[in-house]
Amino acid sequence: MTAVHTTDAAVPTNSSSAPRRAAPDGAPRRRGGAFDRALPYLLLAPAVVAILWLIGWPVLSVVVTSFRKLNLRELTRGEVVWTGLDNYTEILGDPDFWTIAVRTVVFTGVVVIVSVLAGLLIALLMRQVSPVVRILLQVAMLLAWAMPLLAATTVYQWIFDQQYGILNKTLVKVGFDSFAGFSWFSTGTSTLAVIGLLIVWQAVPFLAFSLYAGAIGIPKDQYEAAGIDGASAWQTFRAVTWPELRPLLLMVTFLSLLWDFKVFAQIWAMRKGGPDGGSTTLPVYQYLEGISKSHFGVAAAVSVVMVLLLGLLTFQYLRRLVRSQEGEL
Predict the structure, then answer these.
(1) CA–CA separation, 101 vs 193, rounded Å?
(2) 8 A C-beta contact, residue 70 and residue 308
(3) Which phi and psi angles does 105 have, rounded to 5°?
(4) Which residues make Cβ contacts (< 8 Å) with residue 115, sequence separation at least 6?
């Protein structure tokens, strides 16, 4: 009896029917082409082009203008007169520019510190009060936040008016007779104080709501543990609240620095930088040079200096942010 030997698998007749070799992890191997590798960049390209056009081109135009003599005569005639660094030499050599720059930095720092502290205190207060009081406080802040900028400035002008202001009349009625007919806009310092109070009043709602959102995210068991350990209110704030709110507090402080450094409408609508330029800041100085005097090249140089200062603040913030993230790893 003859044995017949058979095989379980037939030999393939062509190479197309051969099974694919599996990758080491068991998944089929796929080779992406150049189009697949470039697809993410192609999808991002429209957004990048739009950002460069809307932001990059105006910035480049301002930088180029800062190296030109561009007054009303050159603008109407279409002349291009390059002056090199003359515009920067003019503003940096002007003592008034340095006075205004220092005033702007000090004014911004004071306003930001007061705004952030007030927002932090209100945020912590909203966590402690009853729901009814919290809702009333939130509604009041929303109304203050929604008030138009120029309308709020007009209201503050009425409040601090020399003859008809409610503040002077109230102070006189409570016994401060020296405030009868007192002018809150007689000096640059007092004018900036009123403007700073207006800016703080408008900035506190955003800061308070942002910090309150961070405060309610802190687990309650941490406060309970601190209470069991016998920690005081200040110790609880330092050990529990502050570490949790610090990143958010750093972010809103940085945003407040950027916003308050560029404040223009309140200062211009209040006293146009007066009296005698005592409340003039860098944005107002830039407007006076560019619009009032038609020195557009000088105004562009002031803009570049302001951007460099804001860039320095941004660099400091990013460095702190990177350090904090490295510490968490």
Answers:
(1) 17
(2) no
(3) -65, -45
(4) 199, 200, 203, 204, 207, 256, 260
Residue type, 32: G
pLDDT, tens digit (0-9, with 9 covering 90-100), for 271-297 = 888 888 899 999 999 999 888 888 899
Predicted confidence at residue 291, as pLDDT, reads 85
Each residue's pLDDT tens digit, 83-127? 889 999 989 988 899 999 999 999 999 999 999 999 999 999 998
Which tokens is 86 given? 């003359």
Compute the mean pLDDT over every residue in the chain, rounded to the nearest whole number: 84
What does each C-alpha distance from 256 to 107, 132, 165, 216, 227 come to in angstroms? 12, 29, 30, 22, 34
Structure tokens at 52: 């460069």
Burial of 192-209, coded b for 16+ CB within 10 Å and e otherwise, reads bbbbbebbbbbbbbbbbb
Q: What is the pLDDT of residues 245-271, one digit of tens each?
A: 888 898 899 899 989 998 999 999 998
- Asked whether the beta carbons of 188 and 230 are under 8 A apart, the reply is no
- Cα dihedral 236/237/239/244 (nearest 10): 130
